[in-house]
């Protein structure tokens, strides 16, 4: 019997960004049945969204580097919270080495005490409660649901913990009719993500026994929007010899800014309404690998503490980005190995034995535009910058950069933008 874990879709939509969910599925063959901000952000980031106790490793940034290594020269975008939370939920029913590997991967020490594990789950509980609080113009919600075949019994202790710690609903589902089950799951997800995620569950069959859907939805507006009239087409250098044309947003004003000489990068902060913020990190030419290697929770917290006001002429692509990952191929590099093999021990999850996770898929999508909304903005011909005012420094994101979206609950999204808009085939730069 297999637990098919599909972490699907964190969607970050154009209000500057908006985010979705992911889900994981438990599968069993039918014949095997019966049965405010900156200070708060800095504090949360220092512990990260995935850990609640001091850790010898950091899941968020270890996973980021693993995804970058697995996707050379490509966009990378994911929600650490959307990956870490289902792993923590699975750990509730894991036993022995399988549990130890999951918890260690999430940041606990190999021989962590039970109180450390309890602190991990309580940390997620606090984040969920925080994410559900009203935030004015910022919409941020997170939740989970278990769609369960009635013949399969999730153990009472696990079900209680999922409900209490992870606010997960339990929904009886008739998987004997896959089409009905699929419509039920997709309707649930669409309703809670305001229609941003549709047709999440696909290709269900009558052997499915449990689907755990987790969603996270984030939509916010920039505190200071970009003027769509200033957006112009401009070349973005995917690599020095390869460019794509992108709509480049432009704004001059006071920004929180930092030059990090140790990592050879510049950082600019764009706050959203509602105590969330985006950090855009522009490495120096040829310094991307150095910035990637140095990115961790301490670096992020240091940036947030040391940002200072600077007048900038900022040019930032209006872009969309998507990441899709088979995490069962990536997480073993972080030490989470047995979960995806016949050695998996998930005896505490259900009243069935011999369960393993066959696959774990994560997808994340983001769109960033002038207002933080999906309003279309016409773009025109390429126009050169006007002369900057005296004292204004020009900062143009016209080559690959890093992106982190954080709130007081920690890192919500992390990405590497290599090709904004992700779509059109690159065109060679003209010969010098």
TrEMBL record:
<dbReference type="InterPro" id="IPR042185">
    <property type="entry name" value="Serpin_sf_2"/>
</dbReference>
<dbReference type="InterPro" id="IPR023795">
    <property type="entry name" value="Serpin_CS"/>
</dbReference>
<protein>
    <recommendedName>
        <fullName>Serpin domain-containing protein</fullName>
    </recommendedName>
</protein>
<dbReference type="Pfam" id="PF00079">
    <property type="entry name" value="Serpin"/>
</dbReference>
<dbReference type="InterPro" id="IPR042178">
    <property type="entry name" value="Serpin_sf_1"/>
</dbReference>
<feature type="signal peptide">
    <location>
        <begin position="1"/>
        <end position="18"/>
    </location>
</feature>
<feature type="domain" description="Serpin">
    <location>
        <begin position="61"/>
        <end position="420"/>
    </location>
</feature>
<dbReference type="InterPro" id="IPR023796">
    <property type="entry name" value="Serpin_dom"/>
</dbReference>
<dbReference type="InterPro" id="IPR000215">
    <property type="entry name" value="Serpin_fam"/>
</dbReference>
<dbReference type="InterPro" id="IPR036186">
    <property type="entry name" value="Serpin_sf"/>
</dbReference>
<keyword id="KW-0732">Signal</keyword>
<comment type="similarity">
    <text>Belongs to the serpin family.</text>
</comment>
């Amino acid at each position: 019997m297999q637990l098919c874990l599909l972490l699907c879709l964190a969607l970050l939509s154009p209000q500057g960004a908006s985010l979705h969910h992911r889900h994981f599925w438990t599968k069993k063959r039918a014949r095997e049945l019966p049965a405010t901000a900156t200070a708060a952000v800095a504090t949360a980031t220092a512990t990260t969204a995935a850990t609640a106790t001091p850790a010898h490793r950091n899941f968020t940034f270890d996973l980021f580097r693993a995804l970058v290594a697995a996707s050379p020269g490509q966009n990378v975008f994911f929600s650490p919270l959307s990956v870490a939370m289902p792993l923590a939920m699975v750990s509730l029913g894991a036993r022995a080495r399988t549990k130890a590997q999951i918890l260690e991967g999430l940041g606990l020490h190999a021989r962590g005490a039970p109180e450390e594990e309890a602190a991990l789950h309580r940390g997620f509980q606090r984040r969920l409660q925080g994410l559900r609080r009203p935030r004015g113009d910022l919409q941020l919600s997170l939740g989970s649901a278990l769609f369960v075949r009635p013949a399969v019994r999730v153990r009472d202790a696990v079900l209680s913990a999922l409900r209490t710690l992870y606010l997960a609903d339990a929904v009886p589902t008739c998987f004997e009719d896959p089409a009905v089950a699929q419509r039920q799951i997709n309707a649930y997800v669409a309703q809670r993500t305001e229609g941003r995620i549709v047709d999440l569950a696909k290709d269900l069959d009558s052997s499915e026994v449990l689907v755990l859907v987790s969603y996270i939805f984030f939509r916010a507006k920039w505190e200071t929007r970009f003027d769509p009239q200033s957006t112009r087409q401009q070349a973005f250098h995917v690599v020095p010899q390869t460019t794509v044309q992108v709509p480049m947003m432009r704004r001059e004003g006071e920004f929180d800014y930092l030059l990090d000489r140790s990592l050879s990068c510049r950082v600019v902060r764009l706050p959203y309404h509602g105590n969330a913020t985006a950090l855009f990190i522009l490495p120096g030419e040829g310094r991307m690998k150095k910035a990637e290697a140095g990115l961790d929770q301490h670096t992020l917290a240091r940036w947030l503490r040391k940002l200072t006001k600077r007048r900038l002429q900022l040019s930032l692509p209006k872009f969309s980005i998507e990441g899709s990952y088979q995490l069962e191929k990536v997480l073993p590099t972080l030490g989470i190995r047995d979960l995806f093999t016949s050695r998996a021990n998930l005896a505490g999850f259900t009243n069935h034995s011999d369960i393993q996770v066959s696959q774990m898929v994560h997808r994340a999508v983001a769109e960033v535009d002038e207002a933080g909304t999906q309003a279309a903005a016409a773009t025109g011909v390429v126009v050169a910058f006007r002369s900057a005012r005296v004292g204004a420094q020009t900062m143009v994101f016209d080559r690959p950069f890093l992106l982190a979206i954080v709130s007081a609950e920690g890192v919500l999204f992390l990405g590497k933008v290599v090709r904004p808009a992700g779509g059109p085939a690159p065109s060679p730069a003209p010969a010098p």
